[in-house]
Design goal:
Length: 107
């Protein structure tokens, strides 16, 4: 089994106040045989998280799965592993690196 980092995107729709619509990115660590298997697992996970409900203000909210933004393989060692690393043009987001580190690193 291999490890993959996957970024899923859900659109959060407010049926009453459409100006409040937003997007959420969720980062997953997926164990799979290969990238195709990881893609299938992530797609199934994203679709299972779709939901429609009334929030505390009685507004109808819909979580709609829009797709996979990123998928990449991850090598895990005992101390520190890069979960995701990507760059964007200067006009967009700066370089983002998400790291998982052992507690002993933060002394």
């Amino acid at each position: 089994m291999q490890n993959f980092s996957v970024c899923l995107v859900h659109e959060i729709l407010n049926k009453i106040h459409t100006d409040k619509n937003t997007f959420e990115e969720s980062w997953l660590l997926v164990k799979a045989n290969d990238m195709i298997d990881a893609t299938h697992k992530a797609l199934n996970f994203g679709m299972r998280k779709e939901d429609t409900f009334a929030n505390t203000y009685g507004e109808i909210i819909e979580w709609k799965f829009t797709g996979i933004r990123h998928i990449g393989d991850v090598e895990i060692d005992d101390e520190c592993s890069v979960i995701c690393s990507f760059t964007s043009p200067k006009s967009e987001l700066p370089i983002i690196k998400i790291r998982a580190a052992a507690a002993s690193t933060f002394r």
